[in-house]
Design a protein that fits this description.
Layout: H1 27-80, H2 90-94, E1 95-96, E2 108-109, E3 116-120, E4 128-132, E5 157-164, E6 177-185, H3 196-202, E7 209-219, E8 228-232, E9 236-238, E10 243-245, E11 254-258, E12 262-264, E13 269-271, H4 278-281, E14 282-283, H5 292-300, H6 304-309, E15 314-317, H7 325-331, E16 338-342, E17 345-348, E18 351-352, E19 359-370, E20 374-387, E21 397-405, E22 409-412, E23 415-419, H8 421-425, E24 433-436, E25 442-443
Parallel strand pairs: 8-11, 8-21, 9-12, 9-22, 10-13, 10-23, 11-14, 15-16, 16-19, 17-19, 18-20, 19-20, 20-21, 20-22, 21-23
Antiparallel strand pairs: 1-2, 3-4, 3-5, 5-6, 6-7, 7-24, 7-25
């Protein structure tokens, strides 16, 4: 039967008759799902961005802590090898030799905890403001940054501690070795020197830290002091009025040893220790003294060229006429007591060194002493000429310790050379240079 109505009505859309409010309802869930997916994607991207930002911040803080620890290693080595300091040598403030007056030297740290703590500070010379431990058991704490710093948390810091002996995994126990421990911190806060278990109890914010270790050994130190008051590679001459004293009883030392002849004036005296024969205190034509090289090695376990380069000795280039009292006094400022002079030396009287801080004086040239020179320590020189014309009744010239020459040595007039083994033993640890043992650097992580 034919359809009723116009033909256009036969092909009308099925939804054409639906109400207007129901049209497009099927697209809404799809749109919501798309929006939900976009939201989840944004949340994930934001979370990844936050994680990456935190990771970069941790890496930056870790790098700052590592660089601070490296700076602490370099600072400590530089201070240990600094010839002098107005506030006292760091070597004397950090280390102690309990058996200097006895047998073999064995260095020990003076502090049982962190001895020095430093904070980066651009207003301080050297770039680090440092606090030293107030006693030998209390640990030092990093100082607060200066007022010009951006914020306390923007300044890295480090703490330093010395312990006796080398790292167990690098070297067996050995005398005159130390382990340098440095903790670098990304921020100068109180948490820097705390153990991790103390952070929560102290309610402090932990920061990035790095623990570095390094084994130090003493190079070019006085290993074997001279066993004679006067040692000469060539000839020794004692003129009228001069005296060489063997030294302290029981030391077993000699008074004079020479690579050549020993000429004694009738008015000179060689005073031996009680119970020792005069012939045992004076030895001449000793072939082993004629070559300086083995003598350097015997005393310092180092060559003269190596000793010359040690930063722990203050080097002075003498003018054409040689050095005098002014140049020597300038070299001994700030508590320095080890000097290498390139050139001749002439001293007319004066007092140099003392029993607590004996002087090591190396002269790459001849030495001429005039008058009542008073000195405590050890003189090493190419040659020695010590003359005094002072009349009787005036103080005599007096050198306590030892004198060694590669050539001739001559003493004339009222002058005394006294061998003091206990004074020479105090020079141990004050001459050599602390150096890092190759392969001993260790990074113990955060």
């Amino acid at each position: 039967m034919p359809h009723a109505g116009p033909p256009s009505a036969w092909h009308a859309h099925p939804t054409a008759a639906l109400p207007a409010v129901q049209r497009g309802a099927g697209s809404l869930p799809v749109l919501l799902l798309i929006l939900l997916g976009l939201l989840l994607y944004l949340l994930h991207s934001h979370q990844a961005l936050i994680a990456q930002t935190r990771s970069v911040a941790r890496l930056a803080q870790g790098a700052a802590a590592f660089e601070a620890a490296e700076a602490g290693l370099a600072w400590t080595l530089a201070q240990l090898n600094r010839p002098g300091d107005p506030q006292g040598r760091a070597r004397d403030r950090l280390l102690v030799w309990p058996d200097r007056d006895g047998g073999a030297s064995s260095v020990l740290p003076r502090h049982a905890a962190a001895a020095v703590a430093c904070t980066q500070d651009d207003d301080t010379p050297g770039g680090w403001a440092c606090h030293w431990s107030v006693n030998e058991t209390q640990a030092a704490a990093p100082p607060e940054p200066s007022a010009s710093a951006d914020s306390p948390r923007s300044r890295p810091a480090w703490l330093m501690q010395l312990v006796p002996g080398p790292l167990a995994e690098t070297l067996p126990p050995h005398r005159n070795t130390l382990t340098l421990k440095v903790t670098g911190c990304s921020h100068a806060t109180s948490a820097c020197g705390m153990a991790r278990e103390e952070w929560a109890e102290a309610a402090v914010t932990p920061d990035a830290r790095r623990h570095l270790r390094l084994t130090l050994a003493l190079l070019g130190d006085l290993v074997l002091p001279p066993d004679a008051a006067l040692s000469a590679g060539a000839q020794v001459s004692l003129g009228p009025g001069s005296r060489v004293v063997q030294g302290e009883p029981g030391s077993g030392a000699m008074a004079i040893e020479a690579g050549g002849n020993v000429n004694l004036s009738p008015d000179s005296r060689v005073i031996t220790a009680p119970g020792r024969h005069h012939d045992d205190a004076v030895r001449h034509t000793q072939a082993g003294l004629q070559d300086p090289a083995p003598r350097w090695w015997r005393h310092f376990r180092a060559s003269a060229s190596l000793m010359r380069r040690l930063p722990s000795l203050r080097h002075v280039a003498c003018p054409d006429g040689g050095c005098g009292a002014a140049e020597l006094a300038q070299a001994l400022v700030d508590g320095n007591r080890a000097v290498w002079l390139d050139g001749a030396l002439r001293l007319d009287g004066g007092s140099w060194g003392d029993a607590e801080r004996p002087l090591l004086l190396v002269v790459d040239g001849p030495v001429r002493l005039t008058g009542a020179v008073q000195a405590v320590g050890w003189l090493l020189a190419d040659a020695l000429d010590w003359r005094s014309d002072d009349p009787p009744g005036l103080p005599r010239g007096r050198w306590q310790g030892a004198i060694s020459t590669w050539g001739d040595a001559r003493l004339i007039g009222p002058v005394d050379l006294v061998h003091r083994p206990s004074v020479l033993a105090r020079m141990r640890g004050g001459v050599g240079t602390w150096t890092a043992l190759p392969g001993s650097w260790r990074d113990h992580g955060p």
